[in-house]
Amino acid sequence: MENSILITENNFQKAREKIKQNKNKKIVFSSEDDELNRKILEKEKIEILLINQSKRKDFQKQRNSGFNHILAKIAKKNKIIIGINLDEIIESKPKEKTEILARVKQNIKLCAKNKILMRFVTFKKINQRNIYDLKALGLILQMPTWMTKQL
Q1: 118 near 107, Cβ under 8 Å?
Q2: Which pTM was predicted?
């Protein structure tokens, strides 16, 4: 993504400082800590919240996708796009890939229900795909057409 910066942080104060330093750029924020993600969604002005799926452990009876109805309401209110990490999907092993795609699919359903935009985010040149491939993947993961039009 052009003119955007990825901020990965696990401390709220450090994240806040980095966001303030890069006010003129599109900010893509990512963290392994779900509580920090919520805080950033509520309090900071970011473009995209990138939810990583690879290091997560699912619960016994449901998936742990790092996104829920509460975060969805906050993201909608603050007009924040939810990011899908394409680098993570492409580089994962087959078994892990199925789990990641299932979690992404769950997040897509939640975003569709709440009319929140989603984007595929890549930061490695080798993993970039053309818009038609991204739209096809989005449709396979049951993204509504209004969402795929704005990828």
Answers
A1: yes
A2: 0.93
Place of tokens 């990825």: 6
Nearest to 113 by CA among 51, 71, 150: 71
Written as six digits, the tokens of 148 are 């795929």
Q: What is the 8-class DSSP label of residue 53?
A: -
pLDDT, averaged per 10 consecutive residues of the chain (151 residues), comes to 85 94 92 94 95 88 91 96 96 94 96 96 93 96 94 86
Residue whose entry in the numeric block shows the structure tokens 């750029």: 25
Paired with 118 in beta bridges are 82
Distance from C-alpha of 101 to C-alpha of 49, rounded to nearest angstrom: 17
Q: What structural domains does the chain harbor? A: 4-148 (3.20.20.140)
The amino acid at residue 143 is: M
